[in-house]
Amino acid sequence: MEFIPLCGAIGVEVRGVDLNETDTETDAAIRGAFDRHGALMFRGQSLSPENQKRFSSLFGDVFVHPLRTRATVEGHPEVLILENRPGRPGAPNDYWHSDISHMAEPPSATVLHALAVPEGHGDTMICNMARAYEQLSDGLKQMIADLKAFHSGKATQMRSLDPSDARKIDPSEVKPPSLHPVVRSPAGTGQKAIFVNPRFTVGIEGLEERESAWLLNHLYEVATKPENIYRHRWQPGDVLVWDNRRTMHYAVRDYTEDMHRKLHRCTAQGEAPV
Known about the structure:
Layout: E1 2-5, E2 12-15, H1 24-37, E3 39-42, H2 49-56, E4 72-73, E5 76-84, E6 107-116, E7 124-128, H3 129-134, H4 138-144, E8 148-151, H5 154-159, E9 178-181, E10 183-184, E11 193-194, E12 201-204, H6 209-223, E13 229-232, E14 239-243, E15 247-251, E16 261-269
Parallel strand pairs: 2-3
Antiparallel strand pairs: 1-2, 3-14, 4-5, 5-16, 6-14, 6-16, 7-13, 7-15, 8-9, 8-12, 10-11
């Protein structure tokens, strides 16, 4: 295998591997690269749903989305279908977020496999929250060291009211907000990372609303500096993996209903943030 940096912000392209046929040694090398680099990209893959689940399990137990927000591959409820096609536009994800951060144990990794993409459209951006933490002043690091933030799934339930969404989410399915550290230390990485996002983080414990908003907006501003972002331009067969514990991502919505876009997504279980 070869590991080629994706950019200066985060991640590597992994070459010389077929994800359908990996052995224990290759799996260990891939997991090590994930822990070191935070994002992995593989070109020219053709993963069956079963093999995508097996690959995703390198990063944690693969699970069904708790709010079941999308259609899934028949017989494989862990594999969500993200699709945009005529008469059925894909639900928007054009905002910075960390997947399902409102869970008590948020995902460790998100794994996307591109089956069909409109050329030059539908990029995915990933920002490095560990790098963003390093860019904070010592005083701000000290200030946020012991703070905790509330994460809520309410935004997902509200989005489900859009006609383009796959299903309507009953409010009773949305659990009360989870309380997570503003700065976490993801297992196996040796790093600290900012763990808040503008989609699901609804406030910081112990701060007034205006104080919380100011602090969160400042952290988002630092995190989304251009030098902290990798922008992935999709090709059919790409597999993109990112560490959900130390990144945010943004799905660029620059395509129209008539542009076919289809990806399969798996999510791997992470640990409770500390």
